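Thread amino acids onto this structure.
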């Protein structure tokens, strides 16, 4: 069977589409507080048919060796990329997680660990501090202004703690080991809209 000749127009369009995806992924991530280069490197690995090495990332994204190395290490730390051994080659190669549900569960787990858990801990610290405040007011029918402010603050703080704890519990359900929680939630939300 004769080999098909590559269609230059199709190759050009595919490359353009990939470049747009990489740029889009970088823009989206930077809006979430994730470094653009990290997201673009992830997108490049995600789209690649073959594992890539540091030189490949440097060339394709026009970044320095240091930037490429740090970014690849961060992707490994987050668990959304892995090292791949290429027989006969001493360079390290990398590939991205290809299962989008697993990828987003991992991203959610990292965001939870880096944002929700520290926020919740600090909210509880705020509440402990406000609990330690001794007000001058004795038990009167009308609260003194200091006690009223403290009660209002604690009410708002308790409300915020309850909300963040609910988000934390919801996140845990979405990240269950079977991976079905996130997919089920997404399907249910899509039907509800």
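Threaded sequence (193 positions):
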């Amino acid at each position: 069977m004769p080999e098909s000749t590559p269609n230059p127009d199709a190759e050009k369009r595919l490359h353009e589409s990939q470049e747009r995806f990489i740029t889009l992924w970088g823009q989206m991530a930077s809006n979430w507080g994730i470094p653009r280069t990290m997201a673009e490197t992830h997108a490049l690995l995600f789209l690649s048919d073959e594992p890539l090495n540091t030189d490949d990332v440097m060339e394709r994204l026009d970044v320095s060796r240091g930037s490429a190395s740090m970014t690849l290490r961060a992707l490994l730390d987050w668990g959304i990329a892995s090292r791949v051994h290429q027989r006969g080659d001493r360079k390290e190669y990398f590939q991205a997680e290809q299962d989008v549900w697993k990828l987003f569960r991992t991203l959610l787990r990292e965001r939870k660990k880096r944002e929700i858990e520290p926020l919740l801990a600090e909210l509880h610290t705020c509440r402990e501090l406000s609990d330690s405040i001794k007000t001058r007011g004795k038990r009167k029918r009308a609260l003194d202004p200091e006690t009223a402010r403290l009660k209002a603050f604690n009410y708002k703080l308790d409300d915020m703690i309850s909300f963040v704890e609910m988000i934390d519990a919801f996140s845990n359900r979405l990240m269950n080991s079977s991976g079905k929680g996130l997919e089920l939630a997404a399907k249910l939300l899509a039907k509800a809209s």
